[in-house]
Amino acid sequence: MPDEKEKLSREEEQLLQLSVRQHLRELRSVILISAAALALFSVVSFYFFDPIVNFLYAPFLAIEGLNTEDTLFVNFLFEGFLTKLKVSILSGFTLSIPVMLFMIVRFVLPALRRKEKRVLFLAIFTGTLLVGVGFYYGYYTILPLTIKFFTNRGFLPENVGLMLNYQRNILYIFRFILIIMVSFQFPILLEALMILNVLERKTLFKASRFVIVLVFILAAFITPPDFISQCIIAAPLILLYFLAIFVAKIFRFGEGER
Fold this sequence. Notes:
- The protein is an all-alpha fold and about 260 residues long.
- Helices cover about 75% and strands about 0% of the residues.
- It contains nine helices and two strands; from the N terminus they run H-H-E-H-H-E-H-H-H-H-H.
- A two-stranded parallel ribbon has the order 1-2.
- Helix 4 runs antiparallel to helix 5 (about 165-185) and helix 4 runs antiparallel to helix 6 (about 185-195).
- The two termini are about 45 Å apart.
- The model has no long low-confidence stretch (mean pLDDT about 80).
């Protein structure tokens, strides 16, 4: 009997070691494929840089009072190359996110229970929709108002012109759009945590006043320092927050362990 128990323990230890090695190999493949996707899409973005930068440049065309057709200017010799490199890497990272997400989901899926799998797929589907909504709202609504506010001729004397830095402003547009899209994912995270009973619905509702303040603080960092622009970005985020609580109430999510 002792020999059989010792034999079983050795077999269990060997199986555990094999399992750990297998998971490490799978994790390595996730990292390598994600890195390869990042590199590939960065190269593609570098090749198709002109359409990308024209898209990022478009919001500046609406600036009034320009005395020249050139809206953005470079200030040092390497600025054009460095901007192209940075935008290509950022674009490559953005385009490779679906590949990275697919690899991560494939890695964690076998360890999830049926309910957790449903939550994961629902979060991915809804999150994808909100990425599109966040992009459209940020690029076509908030950005034009932001640029119009910052370039308002009321802030400048009549004899002062506009000379906007190329690198800073192009990267600002890119980061701004990414921040908006990421911000729109916050309700999905809350909903998933309520479905899994990590957070309770009543706790989120009680904390809503503090969340509203935090959302306006976040909006103040993202948008110009005027109340109207802050409201334009804060309003949909607050609406999505309460919508997540409302959906949880309908389907009885976040009620705690029963």
